[in-house]
Amino acid sequence: LRENEEFTKVNNIATIELGRYEIETWYFSHFPPEYNDCVKLYFCEFCLNFMKRKEQLQRHMRKCDLKHPPGDEKYQCSTLSMFEVDGKKNRVYGQNLCYLEKLFLDHKTLYYDVELFLFYVWCECDDRGCHMVGYFSNEKHSEESYNLACILTLPPYQRKGYGKFLIAFSYELSKKEGKVGTPERPLSDLGLLSYRGYWTRVLLDILKEHRGNISIKELSDMTAIKAEDILATLQSLELIQYRKGQHVI
Ligand code: ACO
Ligand code: ZN
Is the CB of 197 inside a 6 Å radius of any atom of ligand 1? Predict the structure, then answer.
């Protein structure tokens, strides 16, 4: 935006159509200028290209030959599938995902260089194809040990445990790499709630079974959760004390 243009003058997209849902948006997302006069956008649920009119989408759907996200299937469990999409090979898809995510997230600059990211797209599959329910992005080489940049569950699919699954998946990737991981900051309220829930469950499961001494470092090695996040979680649960210069669980 140029200095003399104001954000508030630009109408935001109020609803989107995606697959079989019409979804009300939550926040402002900065779409390309030619969409400034739109209050509703029509997304192709497979390639995530967006259009101004229903007829354009219908025409697109007759041509679009994708039936799942443009990447490799990495994990499958009954009718659910995880696809890994490389932002370098699928730049437009990655960008579309960022536009979409921003509609449900009020902070963060999401228009990053998508080439540097992998996108893990979680789908419910049926005979019509694999329908995206959520995703997270993962920086290929993070210097800050981030294992997740952004996470989204589409509103019609929220509160079904998919967020928790995506978070768990990001830690499994870290374990495979033999690294610890942490989500990129800042976290949204719902993001923090989901992470606190995940960290609490994972740590309490271990502490419940464990006999004898255990250090935060050991917990971190077992879970791939970064030491700072373990400390913060245990502190919020009032399970930790600071004695003689040491944290004691
Ligand atoms: N109100 C209260 N609690 C909620 C709500 C809600 N609206 N939504 C989820 N929760 C709780 C659940 O009860 C659950 O709690 P528990 O761990 O105690 O059982 C926890 O949050 C996770 O619930 P899930 O069903 O696993 O998560 P969901 O699929 O709904 O996705 C997510 C969570 C991804 C944060 C979703 O709310 C979302 O996409 N929000 C918009 C985008 C966003 O804020 N992303 C996070 C930004 S931070 C970052 O990207 C690093
Ligand atoms: Zn398409």
Answer: yes
